[in-house]
Amino acid sequence: MKKNPLLTKTALLLSSALLVSALAGCTNSEAPEPVSDASGGAAVALGAGGQDAAKAVKADPAVQALLPEGIKAAGSMKLVTDPTYAPIDFTDNSGNIIGLEPDMALAVANKMGIKIEITKGDFNGILAGLESKRYDASWAAFSITPERTAAVDMASYMKGGTSVIVKKGTEGDFHEILDLCGKTVTAQTGTTQALTVMPNFEKACTDAGKKAITPLLLPQQDSANQAIASGRAQAMLADNALTAYYSQIQPDAFAQVDSILVDPSLVGVAMAKGDGKLVKAFSAAIQSLMEDGTYGKIMGAWNLAPSSIEKSEINPTVVG
Predict the structure, then answer these.
(1) pTM value surpassing 0.85
(2) What is the pLDDT of residues 65-100, one digit of tens each?
(3) Is 144 exposed, middle or buried (0-12, 13-18, 19+ CB in 10 A)?
(4) CB atoms within 10 A of CB 93
(5) What is the pLDDT of residue 147?
(6) How far apart are alpha carbons 320 and 311 in whole angstroms?
(7) Burial class (CB in 10 A: 0-12, 13-18, 19+), 5
(8) Is the distance from CB of 141 to CB of 101 less than 8 angstroms?
(9) How many Å apart are CA 165 and CA 255, to the nearest integer?
(10) How far is Cα 185 from Cα 150, in angstroms, rounded to an integer?
(11) Residues of 101-131 as b/e, b for ≥16 C-beta within 10 angstroms?
(12) Is the pLDDT of residue 115 over 50?
Protein backbone atom coordinates (compact mmCIF):
# COMPACT_ATOMS: atom_id res chain seq x y z
CA MET A 1 0.00 0.00 0.00
CA LYS A 2 1.03 3.57 -0.59
CA LYS A 3 2.64 5.11 2.45
CA ASN A 4 0.59 8.03 3.74
CA PRO A 5 1.83 9.62 6.98
CA LEU A 6 -1.50 11.42 7.31
CA LEU A 7 -3.15 8.08 8.02
CA THR A 8 -1.21 7.17 11.13
CA LYS A 9 -2.54 6.36 14.56
CA THR A 10 -0.71 7.22 17.69
CA ALA A 11 0.82 4.96 20.22
CA LEU A 12 -0.26 5.63 23.79
CA LEU A 13 1.96 5.11 26.82
CA LEU A 14 0.69 2.76 29.48
CA SER A 15 2.89 1.23 32.15
CA SER A 16 2.65 -2.55 32.18
CA ALA A 17 2.33 -2.38 35.95
CA LEU A 18 -1.01 -0.64 35.69
CA LEU A 19 -4.14 -2.71 35.97
CA VAL A 20 -6.31 -2.78 32.88
CA SER A 21 -9.68 -4.46 33.32
CA ALA A 22 -12.66 -5.53 31.21
CA LEU A 23 -14.85 -3.46 28.92
CA ALA A 24 -16.46 -0.75 31.01
CA GLY A 25 -16.78 2.97 31.69
CA CYS A 26 -19.82 3.50 29.51
CA THR A 27 -20.81 6.66 27.71
CA ASN A 28 -24.42 5.60 27.18
CA SER A 29 -24.58 2.15 28.70
CA GLU A 30 -24.98 0.09 31.80
CA ALA A 31 -22.56 0.36 34.72
CA PRO A 32 -19.02 -1.00 34.25
CA GLU A 33 -18.51 -4.66 35.07
CA PRO A 34 -15.67 -5.04 37.59
CA VAL A 35 -13.02 -7.76 37.33
CA SER A 36 -10.21 -8.81 39.65
CA ASP A 37 -6.64 -7.84 38.86
CA ALA A 38 -4.04 -10.44 37.89
CA SER A 39 -2.66 -10.61 41.42
CA GLY A 40 -6.05 -11.46 42.89
CA GLY A 41 -6.55 -7.97 44.30
CA ALA A 42 -9.78 -6.09 44.76
CA ALA A 43 -12.10 -5.88 41.77
CA VAL A 44 -12.02 -2.60 39.87
CA ALA A 45 -13.61 -1.33 36.68
CA LEU A 46 -11.67 0.31 33.89
CA GLY A 47 -13.12 3.74 33.17
CA ALA A 48 -15.19 3.86 36.35
CA GLY A 49 -15.71 7.52 37.26
CA GLY A 50 -14.48 8.89 33.95
CA GLN A 51 -17.89 9.70 32.57
CA ASP A 52 -19.10 11.07 35.90
CA ALA A 53 -16.13 13.44 35.97
CA ALA A 54 -16.91 14.56 32.42
CA LYS A 55 -20.60 15.08 33.15
CA ALA A 56 -19.79 17.28 36.15
CA VAL A 57 -17.84 19.81 34.05
CA LYS A 58 -19.35 23.30 33.81
CA ALA A 59 -19.04 25.71 30.90
CA ASP A 60 -16.00 28.00 30.89
CA PRO A 61 -16.84 31.49 29.52
CA ALA A 62 -13.26 31.98 28.36
CA VAL A 63 -13.47 28.79 26.28
CA GLN A 64 -16.94 29.65 24.96
CA ALA A 65 -15.67 32.98 23.71
CA LEU A 66 -13.22 31.19 21.42
CA LEU A 67 -15.80 29.06 19.61
CA PRO A 68 -16.55 29.79 15.95
CA GLU A 69 -19.90 31.54 15.58
CA GLY A 70 -21.41 28.65 13.58
CA ILE A 71 -20.78 26.09 16.29
CA LYS A 72 -21.79 28.52 19.01
CA ALA A 73 -25.09 29.22 17.26
CA ALA A 74 -25.78 25.54 16.62
CA GLY A 75 -24.95 24.63 20.19
CA SER A 76 -23.59 21.30 19.03
CA MET A 77 -20.66 19.64 17.29
CA LYS A 78 -20.31 16.56 15.07
CA LEU A 79 -17.44 14.28 16.08
CA VAL A 80 -16.15 11.07 14.54
CA THR A 81 -13.93 8.24 15.76
CA ASP A 82 -12.84 4.73 14.80
CA PRO A 83 -14.01 2.75 17.86
CA THR A 84 -11.67 -0.21 17.49
CA TYR A 85 -8.84 0.83 19.84
CA ALA A 86 -9.67 -0.19 23.39
CA PRO A 87 -9.35 1.38 25.88
CA ILE A 88 -9.14 4.66 23.93
CA ASP A 89 -12.15 4.29 21.62
CA PHE A 90 -14.26 1.13 21.50
CA THR A 91 -17.82 -0.13 21.86
CA ASP A 92 -19.65 -1.88 24.65
CA ASN A 93 -21.92 -4.88 24.21
CA SER A 94 -24.79 -2.57 23.28
CA GLY A 95 -22.81 -0.87 20.54
CA ASN A 96 -22.27 2.39 22.44
CA ILE A 97 -18.96 4.18 21.82
CA ILE A 98 -16.96 4.25 25.06
CA GLY A 99 -13.40 4.83 26.21
CA LEU A 100 -10.96 7.52 27.23
CA GLU A 101 -11.62 9.79 24.26
CA PRO A 102 -15.43 9.76 24.46
CA ASP A 103 -15.13 10.82 28.12
CA MET A 104 -12.59 13.50 27.23
CA ALA A 105 -14.75 14.68 24.32
CA LEU A 106 -17.76 15.05 26.63
CA ALA A 107 -15.73 17.00 29.18
CA VAL A 108 -14.38 19.34 26.48
CA ALA A 109 -17.87 19.87 25.07
CA ASN A 110 -19.17 20.78 28.52
CA LYS A 111 -16.37 23.33 28.87
CA MET A 112 -17.56 24.75 25.53
CA GLY A 113 -21.19 24.69 26.69
CA ILE A 114 -22.33 22.62 23.69
CA LYS A 115 -23.66 19.14 22.89
CA ILE A 116 -21.80 16.53 20.85
CA GLU A 117 -22.72 13.70 18.53
CA ILE A 118 -20.08 10.99 18.10
CA THR A 119 -20.34 8.74 15.05
CA LYS A 120 -18.30 5.77 13.87
CA GLY A 121 -16.02 6.15 10.87
CA ASP A 122 -13.38 4.24 8.93
CA PHE A 123 -10.03 5.48 10.23
CA ASN A 124 -8.59 5.84 6.75
CA GLY A 125 -11.41 8.21 5.74
CA ILE A 126 -11.62 10.43 8.82
CA LEU A 127 -9.20 13.14 7.71
CA ALA A 128 -10.98 13.47 4.38
CA GLY A 129 -14.23 13.81 6.30
CA LEU A 130 -12.75 16.63 8.34
CA GLU A 131 -11.43 18.44 5.30
CA SER A 132 -14.82 18.19 3.57
CA LYS A 133 -16.48 19.56 6.75
CA ARG A 134 -18.57 16.43 7.15
CA TYR A 135 -17.37 16.42 10.77
CA ASP A 136 -16.28 19.26 13.02
CA ALA A 137 -13.52 17.32 14.77
CA SER A 138 -12.18 13.85 15.48
CA TRP A 139 -10.95 12.09 18.57
CA ALA A 140 -9.45 8.95 16.98
CA ALA A 141 -6.08 8.40 18.70
CA PHE A 142 -4.28 10.54 16.12
CA SER A 143 -0.55 10.98 16.56
CA ILE A 144 0.70 14.47 15.80
CA THR A 145 3.09 14.57 12.85
CA PRO A 146 4.42 17.41 10.67
CA GLU A 147 2.55 15.96 7.69
CA ARG A 148 -0.73 15.88 9.58
CA THR A 149 -0.49 19.38 11.03
CA ALA A 150 0.16 20.64 7.52
CA ALA A 151 -3.28 19.31 6.53
CA VAL A 152 -5.38 19.67 9.69
CA ASP A 153 -5.27 21.58 12.96
CA MET A 154 -4.50 19.59 16.10
CA ALA A 155 -4.60 20.24 19.84
CA SER A 156 -2.48 17.91 21.96
CA TYR A 157 -3.81 16.13 25.03
CA MET A 158 -1.65 13.02 25.57
CA LYS A 159 1.71 11.41 24.89
CA GLY A 160 2.48 7.93 23.64
CA GLY A 161 4.66 5.08 22.28
CA THR A 162 4.47 1.69 20.46
CA SER A 163 4.73 -1.76 22.04
CA VAL A 164 4.68 -5.43 21.05
CA ILE A 165 2.21 -8.15 21.96
CA VAL A 166 2.76 -11.89 21.42
CA LYS A 167 0.93 -15.14 22.06
CA LYS A 168 0.95 -16.14 25.72
CA GLY A 169 3.77 -18.56 26.44
CA THR A 170 6.12 -17.17 23.80
CA GLU A 171 7.03 -13.90 25.53
CA GLY A 172 10.31 -15.41 26.74
CA ASP A 173 11.52 -15.43 23.13
CA PHE A 174 11.17 -11.65 22.72
CA HIS A 175 13.35 -9.13 24.53
CA GLU A 176 14.49 -6.67 21.87
CA ILE A 177 13.68 -5.55 18.34
CA LEU A 178 16.11 -8.03 16.75
CA ASP A 179 14.16 -10.90 18.28
CA LEU A 180 11.43 -10.10 15.74
CA CYS A 181 13.75 -10.87 12.82
CA GLY A 182 12.62 -13.85 10.77
CA LYS A 183 9.15 -13.69 12.33
CA THR A 184 5.76 -12.77 10.88
CA VAL A 185 4.75 -9.48 12.51
CA THR A 186 1.25 -8.06 12.16
CA ALA A 187 -0.22 -4.55 12.48
CA GLN A 188 -3.35 -2.73 11.41
CA THR A 189 -3.17 -1.12 7.98
CA GLY A 190 -2.75 2.66 8.04
CA THR A 191 -1.36 2.90 11.56
CA THR A 192 1.97 4.34 12.64
CA GLN A 193 3.00 0.80 13.45
CA ALA A 194 2.34 -0.36 9.88
CA LEU A 195 3.70 2.68 8.08
CA THR A 196 6.66 3.73 10.21
CA VAL A 197 7.58 1.31 12.99
CA MET A 198 7.39 -1.89 10.92
CA PRO A 199 9.74 -0.59 8.16
CA ASN A 200 12.17 0.65 10.82
CA PHE A 201 12.18 -2.79 12.44
CA GLU A 202 12.67 -4.45 9.05
CA LYS A 203 15.67 -2.24 8.39
CA ALA A 204 17.13 -3.01 11.81
CA CYS A 205 16.98 -6.71 10.96
CA THR A 206 18.59 -6.40 7.54
CA ASP A 207 21.25 -4.00 8.84
CA ALA A 208 22.13 -6.58 11.49
CA GLY A 209 22.42 -9.31 8.84
CA LYS A 210 19.47 -11.21 10.25
CA LYS A 211 16.47 -12.75 8.53
CA ALA A 212 13.87 -10.26 7.35
CA ILE A 213 10.57 -9.66 9.10
CA THR A 214 7.48 -10.84 7.19
CA PRO A 215 4.91 -8.04 7.58
CA LEU A 216 1.25 -9.04 7.87
CA LEU A 217 -0.85 -5.89 7.50
CA LEU A 218 -4.56 -6.34 8.14
CA PRO A 219 -7.41 -3.81 7.71
CA GLN A 220 -8.99 -4.32 11.15
CA GLN A 221 -7.34 -4.39 14.57
CA ASP A 222 -9.48 -7.38 15.54
CA SER A 223 -7.99 -9.31 12.62
CA ALA A 224 -4.47 -8.50 13.79
CA ASN A 225 -5.37 -9.70 17.29
CA GLN A 226 -6.74 -12.94 15.84
CA ALA A 227 -3.55 -13.46 13.82
CA ILE A 228 -1.62 -13.62 17.09
CA ALA A 229 -4.14 -15.85 18.83
CA SER A 230 -4.19 -18.30 15.91
CA GLY A 231 -0.42 -18.34 15.42
CA ARG A 232 -0.65 -16.82 11.94
CA ALA A 233 1.72 -14.11 13.22
CA GLN A 234 4.25 -14.33 16.03
CA ALA A 235 4.10 -10.68 17.13
CA MET A 236 1.92 -7.61 16.76
CA LEU A 237 2.83 -3.92 16.81
CA ALA A 238 0.19 -1.60 18.29
CA ASP A 239 -0.50 1.28 20.65
CA ASN A 240 0.99 0.49 24.02
CA ALA A 241 -2.37 1.10 25.70
CA LEU A 242 -3.97 -1.46 23.40
CA THR A 243 -1.30 -4.13 23.96
CA ALA A 244 -1.49 -3.66 27.73
CA TYR A 245 -5.28 -3.78 27.61
CA TYR A 246 -5.51 -7.08 25.75
CA SER A 247 -2.70 -8.72 27.72
CA GLN A 248 -4.68 -7.95 30.87
CA ILE A 249 -8.23 -8.85 29.83
CA GLN A 250 -7.08 -11.96 27.92
CA PRO A 251 -3.99 -13.07 29.88
CA ASP A 252 -4.29 -16.66 28.67
CA ALA A 253 -4.09 -15.51 25.03
CA PHE A 254 -1.76 -12.50 24.94
CA ALA A 255 1.40 -11.20 26.61
CA GLN A 256 2.88 -7.72 26.27
CA VAL A 257 6.64 -7.47 25.71
CA ASP A 258 7.50 -4.80 28.27
CA SER A 259 11.09 -4.36 27.12
CA ILE A 260 10.15 -3.08 23.64
CA LEU A 261 8.72 0.46 23.66
CA VAL A 262 9.42 2.82 20.77
CA ASP A 263 8.08 5.75 18.78
CA PRO A 264 7.33 8.40 21.45
CA SER A 265 4.73 10.86 20.19
CA LEU A 266 2.03 13.35 21.11
CA VAL A 267 -1.66 12.63 20.60
CA GLY A 268 -4.19 15.23 19.49
CA VAL A 269 -7.77 15.96 18.57
CA ALA A 270 -7.99 16.88 14.87
CA MET A 271 -10.13 19.31 12.90
CA ALA A 272 -10.11 20.98 9.48
CA LYS A 273 -7.77 23.88 8.86
CA GLY A 274 -9.63 27.16 9.30
CA ASP A 275 -9.24 30.51 10.97
CA GLY A 276 -7.79 28.86 14.06
CA LYS A 277 -10.69 29.61 16.38
CA LEU A 278 -11.85 26.03 16.83
CA VAL A 279 -8.43 24.60 17.59
CA LYS A 280 -7.87 27.43 20.07
CA ALA A 281 -11.16 26.55 21.75
CA PHE A 282 -10.18 22.88 21.96
CA SER A 283 -6.75 23.63 23.38
CA ALA A 284 -8.19 26.10 25.90
CA ALA A 285 -10.87 23.59 26.96
CA ILE A 286 -8.30 20.82 27.46
CA GLN A 287 -6.08 23.19 29.43
CA SER A 288 -9.04 24.23 31.58
CA LEU A 289 -9.75 20.55 32.31
CA MET A 290 -6.13 20.11 33.35
CA GLU A 291 -6.33 23.06 35.71
CA ASP A 292 -9.60 22.05 37.41
CA GLY A 293 -8.51 18.43 37.92
CA THR A 294 -11.01 16.79 35.56
CA TYR A 295 -8.32 15.81 33.06
CA GLY A 296 -6.43 13.89 35.73
CA LYS A 297 -9.59 12.13 36.88
CA ILE A 298 -10.42 10.93 33.37
CA MET A 299 -6.87 9.84 32.59
CA GLY A 300 -6.70 8.01 35.91
CA ALA A 301 -10.07 6.34 35.40
CA TRP A 302 -8.74 4.70 32.23
CA ASN A 303 -5.37 3.83 33.84
CA LEU A 304 -3.59 6.21 31.48
CA ALA A 305 -2.10 8.64 33.99
CA PRO A 306 1.46 7.97 32.68
CA SER A 307 0.31 9.34 29.31
CA SER A 308 -0.72 12.68 30.79
CA ILE A 309 0.79 15.97 29.66
CA GLU A 310 0.87 19.29 31.50
CA LYS A 311 0.03 21.64 28.65
CA SER A 312 -2.16 21.43 25.56
CA GLU A 313 -0.46 22.87 22.48
CA ILE A 314 -1.77 23.83 19.05
CA ASN A 315 0.04 22.08 16.19
CA PRO A 316 3.14 21.45 18.33
CA THR A 317 6.43 21.00 16.57
CA VAL A 318 7.38 17.34 16.61
CA VAL A 319 10.07 15.25 14.97
CA GLY A 320 8.70 13.70 11.78
Answers:
(1) no
(2) 999 999 999 999 999 999 988 889 999 989 999 999
(3) buried
(4) 10
(5) 85
(6) 21
(7) middle
(8) yes
(9) 6
(10) 31
(11) bbbbbbbbbbbbbbebebeebebeebbebbe
(12) yes
